[in-house]
Amino acid sequence: MNQPKSGMQYLLDPALNKGTAFTEKERDALGLRGLVPPRGFTLQEQEHRILANFRGKCSDLERYIYLMGLQDRNTTLFYQVVINNLDEMMPIIYTPTVGEACQKYGAIFRRPRGLFLTRNDRGRIAQVLRNWPAANVRVIVVTDGERILGLGDLGAAGMGIPVGKLSLYTACAGIHPAHCLPITIDVGTNNETFLEDPLYIGLQEKRLRGEPYDDLIEEFVQAVQEVFPNCLLQFEDFANHNAFRLLQKYRDRICTFNDDIQGTGAVALAGLYAALRLTGDKITDRNVLFLGAGEAGIGIGDTIVAAMEHEGLSRDKARKRCWFMDSKGLVIKSRTDLAEHKIAYAHDHEPIVDFVEAVRKIKPVAIIGVTGHPGAFGQSIVEAMTEINERPIIFALSNPTANAECTAEEAYRWSKGKAVFASGSPFKPVEYEGKTYVPGQGNNAYIFPGVGLGVTLCGARHVTDVMFFAAARALAGEVKESDLTQGRIYPPLQSVRRISVGIATAVIEMAHEEGLATKEKPENVRAFVEAEMYQPEYREYL
Description:
seven-stranded mixed β-sheet, 14 strands, five-stranded parallel β-sheet, 24 helices, Rossmann fold, about 45% helix
């Protein structure tokens, strides 16, 4: 990289900027004298200032805007703050606050981040990708904005999701920020509010469908292979009808995965493994009942099936342990309206349209909510689960927090303190009859950053379901007895960088075992992973 010719260029480039941390010698040598305040501050002292300002904001959305501004000004300081305060920062830079930020993206827009591609770029997508200033891109997160969290079609305003995801790749797993590229493919929106909104940042036209859509995605995938040939491509927040088929189309062609399907599956499986330590059940012995049969639900089901196969069940028997209920009732063989991704989980059973009845008939050890409908797990459902199980497992995984199928407080109160609860977005600890319960958060940030780190470090040609199974086992192994005594089935989020090291190590081992790694296996894989992780430190210019 060429050195800037003027001091102001150092201040305007977030990758180079140190703000008040430039030394006296640097100020003289780089032409910065007078351009920054005279008193110098260390990175740690700057962090204290940022935290004071951050905590003084009046709303989470204001905190989000403040952090995005910091990321635009000073990359190193941004990650210093986020990494050292993950518990506090993650709900702001990602779910749940990022959902509100996407809904208001046009109104709060300050500075573009990432790349926007549209149908108007057909025939020149590779050229547009080359406009990105960094050549060594290793991870791309791409969305078309059609199914943002549980909020639906947000079109180009969904850019907050790939931006946030890639921030977590760096904060949680140490992938260098210069190696990350967020992309939104703007194919229009069917959101009537945005079509009329004068501040909406995307194309104000109906969504592209059918062959033109597929052709655009195909050109994009080929362009990524041409411009960034060693890149992991993560599909994010595509609607069900595209997510499953795009994953099937490209998973054996390129290095890719869908976090909504595979990452969600792995983090839920890890939570289930930990929860079963509390109930005393084996994963192969009891049924699991899902409310919702979209990307997240089927992804979790597939990962649970992989785990049961590892424990000795046949795939057919493992699938029969997983039952799904969608908006039209129990997923059964006699139904003629099932989408292709549900057919493998259609079992022989009488029709059921009431979820409470399904609980009583299927007798699951766990219910997993992935509907996006708040309150879907009502009191009668939790009470029915408690009648069947000494420790009912209740996973209300829909994001953001407002869309959770039930709250942590409801799950503990309605089960009289017996529930083993996890959610997708964070809930605060709950006091019930003199005992404090710490809800688990089934946050994909436990899984996908470590998987991405492992995949990129070993140069894996493909990302397999077995890698996600290995990641789930690694995460479950981090849950300590002290966590379980509080009802917590995931380790503290602040330890996620250490967890990512273990996951990346497991993924690299698996990639070599499957013959998918293109780089030589290091003698000490874990030490290699740790040495490769980005740390937020100011570079010395002299």
